[in-house]
Design goal:
Elements: E1 6-16, E2 22-29, H1 33-37, H2 43-47, H3 52-60, E3 61-64, H4 72-76, H5 80-93
Antiparallel strand pairs: 1-2, 2-3
Length: about 100
């Protein structure tokens, strides 16, 4: 028996990088406990608990188009619709939705 640990997605709008290149397809891996625990110690999360979403997504999104290092800055640069999409996708692939 094998467990699927990585899931492909397509962003509704896409991420525009500094070179104005659009990145829409990506991969997200299953979250581990550490992915939700570590961000809680970050001062940005302590100042604004909603920022934990940015840090968690930057840990579990493994690729976005040609970008293979997803940083909090990349997640911050997403359009609101794409951020919402990734939050919903995260809950779905990790079994946090009925």
């Amino acid at each position: 028996m094998s467990l699927q640990t990585e899931f492909e997605f397509l962003l509704p709008k896409g991420y525009l990088d500094a070179d104005n290149q659009l990145h829409r397809n990506g991969f997200m891996r299953l979250s581990r406990a550490v992915d939700e625990i570590v961000p809680m110690g970050d001062p940005r999360v302590q100042a604004n608990p909603a920022y934990s979403t940015v840090l968690i997504l930057s840990r579990v999104v493994t690729r976005l188009g040609e970008i293979d290092t997803i940083t909090p800055t990349v997640v911050e640069g997403l359009f609101a619709e794409d951020l919402q999409f990734l939050q919903t996708f995260y809950r779905k692939v990790n079994g946090l939705v009925n």
